């Protein structure tokens, strides 16, 4: 269970949101919406513990995430704007490192299976700098196939993906949520989210 209590975040001299509160239980997908600059990425980074809120608290199973530290980080998977993949490494190497950093012990055949699921067979041995934008994103998203994290926090996961990859990602998210996982995502596209219970949070801008 994730609880956000009276949260306020500031970037530079602008307060992006305040008095933000919500709870998210198992099997729920939260779609965070708002125009460019409204603070969606800021909120997601705060939820990951990467950014200190100005006010308020984020609790995971009743405890402040700042107290939980690594215990919380083991339970979450964060997918940020920049994909987090290393250009000089192959898809396979990137995935191995990402899985290890996520604390998932995975066999090589599972890495292959994940890359295959993401439609990357034949490209797994190329340095990722030689892949297209969409293929890079597919490499990064292969983490989701392997992840054992309960809470997925996904910032614009659908951008740069073609129709097939969008459908695959929709399935991965729906399976995760339907199996009792939690997911929070932002997206500007009108991507139908197919999971059981979907909640929406709209961010505006404060001055
Ligand atoms: N490091 C920073 N220092 C100062 N201001 C920042 C910093 N990072 C972001 N901001 C500002 O905070 C505001 C919110 O940014 P954020 O990335 O959270 O928006 P967003 O809703 O995710 O936008 P988008 O839809 O364009 O991705 C923006 O006005 C941005 O300029």
TrEMBL record:
Alphabetized PROSITE patterns for the sequence: ABC_TRANSPORTER_1 (PS00211), ABC_TRANSPORTER_2 (PS50893)
Biological process terms in GO annotation: cytochrome complex assembly
Keywords tagged on the record: ATP-binding, Cytochrome c-type biogenesis, Membrane, Nucleotide-binding, Translocase, Transport
A Pfam family it matches: ABC_tran
Gene3D superfamilies: P-loop containing nucleotide triphosphate hydrolases
Molecular function in Gene Ontology: ATP binding; ATP hydrolysis activity; transmembrane transporter activity
Domain of life assignment: Bacteria
Keyword flag ATP-binding: yes
The keyword Transcription belongs to this UniProt entry's keyword annotation: no
Any coiled-coil regions, as ranges: none
Membrane-crossing residue ranges in chain numbering: none
Domain called ABC transporter: residue spans: 2-201
Protein name, per record: Heme ABC exporter, ATP-binding protein CcmA
């Amino acid at each position: 269970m994730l609880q956000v209590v009276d949260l306020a975040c500031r970037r530079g001299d602008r307060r992006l949101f305040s008095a933000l509160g919500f709870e998210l239980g198992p099997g729920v997908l939260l779609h965070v919406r708002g125009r460019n600059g409204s603070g969606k990425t800021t909120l997601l980074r705060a939820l990951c513990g990467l950014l200190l809120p100005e006010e308020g608290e984020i609790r995971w199973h009743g405890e402040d995430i700042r107290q939980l530290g690594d215990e919380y980080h083991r339970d979450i998977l964060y997918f940020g704007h920049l994909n987090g993949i290393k250009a000089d490494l192959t898809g396979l190497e990137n995935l191995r490192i990402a899985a290890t950093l996520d604390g998932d012990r995975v066999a090589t055949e599972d890495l292959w299976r994940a890359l295959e699921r993401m439609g990357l067979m034949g490209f797994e041995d190329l340095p990722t700098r030689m892949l297209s934008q969409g293929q890079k994103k597919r490499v990064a998203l292969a983490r989701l196939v392997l992840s054992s994290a309960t809470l997925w926090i996904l910032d614009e996961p659908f951008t740069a993906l073609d129709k097939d990859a969008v459908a695959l990602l929709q399935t991965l998210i729906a399976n995760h949520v339907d199996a009792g996982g939690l997911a929070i995502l932002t997206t500007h596209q009108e991507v139908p989210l197919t999971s059981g219970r979907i909640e929406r949070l709209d961010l505006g801008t404060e001055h």
